[in-house]
Amino acid sequence: METSDKCEPEVVCWRDGALDGACLASARYGNHKFDRHLHDELVIVMTEAGAGQCHTRAGSEIAGPGSVLVFGPGEYHSGEVWEGREWIYRAIYLDMEGLGALSAVFSPDARADKPLLIPPGLYQDPHLAGLLVKAHASLDEQGSVSLMERQANWWAAMGMLVGRYGRSGEEPVEPRREARKMEQVREYVAANYERDISVDELAELVGLSRYYLTRAFCKAFGLPPHAYATQVRLLAAKRMLAAGHNAATAAAAVGFYDQSHLNRLFKRAYGITPGTYAALKPGH
């Protein structure tokens, strides 16, 4: 397990072979602000000391000890260390494989394309937070906890989380025509993020004016198309860095102007540089 340089926030990422689709992290931040960004996993954050203030489309909330903060995949958010002091937390990142594993255990009737859901939000639940922290700590890469105990702690914590707050995947209602068009635009951007796509191209795709398209997309997803494209590029860069590529290669591959452009946006979104993130070996 490797940590970042002392002048940077202290962040550690690792995976445990006992878990499916889960990446674990522990972090300590001083006076720091996180630019608006998103994750492609379900993110579960347990504060151990200090506090962080997080902003989503639903409003602003302060996550302190005894709370569990959940962000949904694709949920646009920002935040900062509360009052510029310190925020020490543990986090769990569950991708679709991880959510599928939870569904198989706790909601076996759930469809593969509609796995178990944990609604985003801040849960003031000291008992659950304590159980999640215990499970997370037992999964520490340098720890000596047996496989059986690690798995027991994990499933006990996940069982309480799902039992108290989980929902089965719901059938969506028939989307309105505009919502279908915005989803079409989002899928198109996600499939073509390496290119410098114009708003004109997107407007022509769905038969809307440039102004109306931008306003409708922002209303649907909380950010304009160009900002969404930037987030998709950052996620793609994270995957490449985790796979062992260097920052320059990742920047060129995902459509950033150059490595400095990636460095600047990555640091503002995630609090660490691409080089530091790659050194943490989050894909291992």
Task: Please report which band the strand proportion falls in: under 5%, 5-15%, 15-25%, 25-35%, 35-45% or over 45%.
Answer: 15-25%
Helical percentage: 40-55%
Total beta-strand segments? 10
Q: What topology, given as strand order, has the largest sheet? A: 1-2-9-4-7-10
Rounded Rg? 19 Å
- Low-pLDDT stretches are 1-7
- CATH architectural type of the largest domain: Sandwich
Provide mean pLDDT, rounded: 86
Shape: globular
The CATH topology of the largest domain turns out to be: Jelly Rolls
Structural class, from secondary structure content?
A: alpha+beta
- The CATH superfamily of the largest domain turns out to be Jelly Rolls
| Integer count of domains | 2
**Biggest β-sheet: count, sense, barrel?**
6 strands, antiparallel
Keywords: DNA-binding, Transcription, Transcription regulation
Pfam families: AraC_binding (PF02311), HTH_18 (PF12833)
Domain HTH araC/xylS-type: 183-280
GO molecular function: DNA-binding transcription factor activity; sequence-specific DNA binding
